[in-house]
Amino acid sequence: MKPFAITLTVCCWLLFACKPAAPPAAAPGTDSLAISKDSLQETDENENEDLADFEKEEFEAGMQALLKSYDTPIQIDTSLVLDEDSVRLRLKYFCLKDSAIRIPKSFFERFLTKDFITHNFACSVHLENKGQVMLDTTITADYFRQYFDKDFRAFAVLSDPWLAVVPEEHLLKIEMVMIVPLTEIVIFIVIKVNKDGKIEVVVKE
Questions:
Q1: Contact (CB, 8 A) for 143 and 80
Q2: Which distant-in-sequence residues (6+ apart) come within 8 Å of 10 by Cβ?
Q3: Signal peptide location in the record (predicted)?
Q4: pLDDT-derived band of residue 36, with 50, 70 and 90 as boundaries?
Q5: Does pLDDT of 175 surpass 90?
Q6: How buried is 133 (Cβ within 10 angstroms: 0-12 exposed, 13-18 middle, 19+ buried)?
Q7: Which residue of 3, 120, 143, 149 has the fewest C-beta atoms within 10 A of its own C-beta?
Q8: Is 117 left (phi over 0), alpha (psi -120 to 50) or beta?
Q9: φ, ψ for residue 62 (rounded to 5)?
Q10: Are 93 and 74 in contact (CB under 8 A)?
Q11: Can you give the pTM of this predicted structure?
């Protein structure tokens, strides 16, 4: 799961929403300073309510995307040229549906009233070079847990992969993220694969 980007439209909406309203004119015999303070307080309360509504909508959208991913595997099947060799790479990212991750409700503040149970994800990697199988493995979060502290690894799952070819390094890069679902707590991971199927893991904290 990735952190949500705020679009230009939303940014503009927030910009105008944050503009304080002009205080009402004071009636005869009324303390205009008191009215101004009351108006500003009311404006702040409205802004806080708008922000809370926006955050709730974002959280709910993230929840729907996560639930959909349980039944929507991502597959990549592509042929590439690496060091003048033609290689074929097949990736499949999928949900294990193991209900193995229980995230405390404290991670979600006001959005949930109980712990959230979700699943681990995995990514199968199959690499062929000139028709010969060089790599055939399945990567799970367990592959990376040794790099993280116990609190993070207890709740983090593997995100969907991005693929890049790096000719100058003579390898493929499979970029992934370990993330606590529905949060912005992430650690970036790069899996380097050469044409012979050798793997190197780089963790970017």
A1: no
A2: 54
A3: 1-27
A4: low
A5: yes
A6: exposed
A7: 149
A8: beta
A9: -65, -40
A10: yes
A11: 0.73
